[in-house]
Structure formats: structure tokens, C-alpha cells
Amino acid sequence: MSDLVTSEEEFDAITDKIPQRPVGIVEGTSYSLIILAALGFAAAVLYAAVSELLLQPAEYLCFNKCLDRIKDDPRVTVRLGEPVHAYGTESRNRAARQHVPHRFYDDSEGRQHMQLQFHLTGPRGRATVNADMYMEDGEWKHNFLYLDVHEPQRQQVVLIRPEPVYQTAP
């Protein structure tokens, strides 16, 4: 019975005779590069997801700050009614409505400003909001904020007036 070899022993006997091929430098490096590229891609996807879902862009921070100020003002609720809905661009396209038109610029003192324009609708009317905000001490502050009311009666409501610029005499 010693002549009988089980199939497992026969398989081990065959595979033990195959010499192992050494991994070359190029092959090892290529595997490392593929792994690094995959990790880099995964990091980029993770960063995009986190920045899109958790971190708000500056234009949305300013938009929300303006909207809170507008909703707290009784002059707006008298003219437009409650609730007031805000959106970026007048369009049937949902993505266009969610985009808030804005532009950044720097003033003569080197402060960063952002101008916003968005639309409001309420049960009694609609309006266009124009705002200018500036960055000071890491916080966005209002320079001006006004509404151009289109309905029911055309008028302009100034919520925050721009500060006058005083120039010193030379």
C-alpha cells in the first residue's frame, strides 16, 4: 500500500518542483505605481465628496447670511408675504436656479468683496436682491443689501446702506 500516493501529495510533489520566478524591479515598481495611483484617485474622490457635502463655498455662506437678514426684516414680509423663497437664476432648469450669480473683487484697501444677485418670491410678490459683502477678520460682513421689488408695486427697499468712503485731504 505504500505505492499508493494520494492526490494531495501528488499535487504538492508537482508544485514543489516548479521554480519560483523572482519578481523583477520593473514589475514590482509597476505594481507600486498602480497602487499609488489608485490611492491618489481614492483620495481625490474623497476630497471632492467631503468638500461638496460638508464644506460650503463662500457664495452659499453669503447667500444664507443675506437670506437670514432678509427674512428677519418686516419690510420684506409686508411686501412679499411669508414664506419667502430664494433662488439663484430665473430659469426652468433646477441647476440654474440653485446657482447663485456672484463675483469676487478686491477693493483699494485689499479686502476681498463678493457681489451677489438672487431672486425672492412670496405669496404677494417677487423681488431681486443685490448684495455686496466683504471679508473682515475671517467673517463676511455686509457692505450693502437692497431689494428691487417687482410685484406688487415696483420699489427699492434698502436694508443695509453702503458706508460712505471718506478721503483724507493731502
From TrEMBL:
Keywords: Membrane, Mitochondrion, Mitochondrion inner membrane, Protein transport, Transit peptide, Translocation, Transmembrane, Transmembrane helix, Transport. Pfam families: TIM21. Signal peptide: none annotated. The chain crosses the membrane at residues 31-50. Its main location: mitochondrion. InterPro entries: Tim21 (IPR013261), Tim21_IMS_sf (IPR038552). It is a single-pass membrane protein. One of its GO terms (cellular component) is TIM23 mitochondrial import inner membrane translocase complex. One of its GO terms (biological process) is protein import into mitochondrial matrix. It is found in: Mitochondrion inner membrane. Essential component of the TIM23 complex, a complex that mediates the translocation of transit peptide-containing proteins across the mitochondrial inner membrane. Component of the TIM23 complex. Belongs to the TIM21 family. This is Mitochondrial import inner membrane translocase subunit Tim21. It comes from Prototheca wickerhamii. The lineage of its organism: Eukaryota, Viridiplantae, Chlorophyta, core chlorophytes, Trebouxiophyceae.
